[in-house]
Amino acid sequence: MGEGRGHLNHNASRFPVEVCENIVDMLYSFSLIDRVEDSRALHRCALVCRAWHVRSQRNLFYSVVLHDLPALQKFSAVLDNAPHLCDYVHEVALIWRTLHTTTSPLSLLPIALYGKLPKLQEVIINRIREDEDWYPRSSELESAKSLQYLPLHPRFALYFSAFTTVSRLYIVNLTFLHFNDFARMINSLPELQELECNTVRCVTLGPLPFNMKPRADGSHAPATPFAPKLQKLRLYRVDIHCVQRLVSACGPRLRGLLVTMPFFYDAEMVVPGDPTTESPVDVDLSVCSTLERLDIFLGPELVTEGQSLDQLKAMLGSWEPEVPLLDVYLQPYHEHNFTRQDFADLLGPVGRILEHVFDDSSAPPSADGEVDEEDTEWRLVVSLHDGEVWLDWWRRHVIDCFPGFAMPHDLRVICRLPLYDQFKWKDRLDSDSDSDSDSDS
């Protein structure tokens, strides 16, 4: 892909080149599944003709997907042979089943690409599970020894810190030996602003890293806070102890936070006799004074698990924001776990907790009957995937669950079309048949 070998065919298309370039530009998706397919399509587009080559190459190298060590080595060699491509690369995704094996390419990633990606902004590290069939398999697994956790070089954090322009990090389906390894990976990126962790585990929690300890005594506080530029933190199915540590360390700078409820307790991480894993913890938002948006993904176990609603109440009750407008988003985790009525019923007890917390946090009016203009205004958004024909149904149920909020001023319902099966409701078959009959009539 470093050299253009396509030949311009004037009869290939009657469309202006600009139209074709706009079509090529559409081959980019935020979804990782689609991004893999987009990469394959861009390879083909780059070979169509010379007129398509440059635009396809720019898009192909904008977001690079690597799946093993040979692919990483080949990519590094391409950049050496065609240095102009280095400026094209803004996103790198390492996706494969071998990340938890002796042939894991992760430790070599920052070494192989050292100094070659001056505009890199995003890094994705995603271990494909054995039960996932959306990504192709390879015989390489047969020669690789499987490991319980991610094998990292002792100096990985030092090498990783060379990515001085990376502002977004996504970690999916990874297990670290120690929480400290996880924390050092995050803290090594000096410009990190967004962190998303999905199903990230630690074999051993261990003591709190030094630069994550509270600044109770200035003389013992670290010179540089943990992840000093991190503003957006999204945590899906991460153990409650890890969530509590990350929120506590990053809270004073966070503007956006996402958590799943009920909180995930990693039974395999609990070590008998270790108070750091056996003691119950809550997520304390008292340090998140600058938080502007809180996303809460609600799982079906929220009501059936006894302490979950109390934990939700305690988390929201600890929050004392100092921003003028604050958005709280409620979303299902995920739609395929619910029928529509199931999720509507779940919003009832959640609504009572939110109204109780928000009423208690509202400042009383002043002597002249007016509320201080500097008080925080709360806005609640119920966001879900569904067809537009269901929007009025959802609005009626949401209004019943949150009677203290006014539509549309401080209560909104957002419906987006489901693109994947995990965003489709359990009762979607009935709704699909209803839609078909409506369209027939």
Question: Can you put this structure into words, describing what you see?
Answer:
The protein has helices spanning 17-25, 32-46, 50-62, 69-81, 109-112, 140-143, 156-160, 179-187, 240-250, 275-278, 308-317, 340-361, 391-401, 428-440; strands spanning 63-66, 91-96, 122-127, 168-172, 175-178, 194-198, 201-204, 232-236, 256-261, 293-298, 325-332, 377-385, 411-416. With 441 residues, it is of the alpha/beta class. The chain has three domains: 1-61; 67-134 and 145-211 and 225-291, Alpha-Beta Horseshoe (Leucine-rich repeat, LRR (right-handed beta-alpha superhelix)); 294-362 and 374-441, no CATH class. Strands 1-2-3-4-6-8-9-10-11-12-13 form an eleven-stranded parallel sheet, sandwiched between helices. It has a two-stranded parallel ribbon with strand order 5-7. Helix 13 links the parallel strand 12 and strand 13. The longest helix is centred in the last third of the chain and has 22 residues, at 340-361. The protein is globular and about 65 Å long.
What is the share of helical residues? 25-40%
Count of spatially separate domains: 3
Class by alpha and beta content: alpha/beta
Report mean pLDDT, rounded to a whole number: 83
Low-pLDDT windows of residues: 1-6, 363-369, 433-441
What is the strand arrangement across the widest sheet? 1-2-3-4-6-8-9-10-11-12-13
CATH architecture of the largest domain: Alpha-Beta Horseshoe
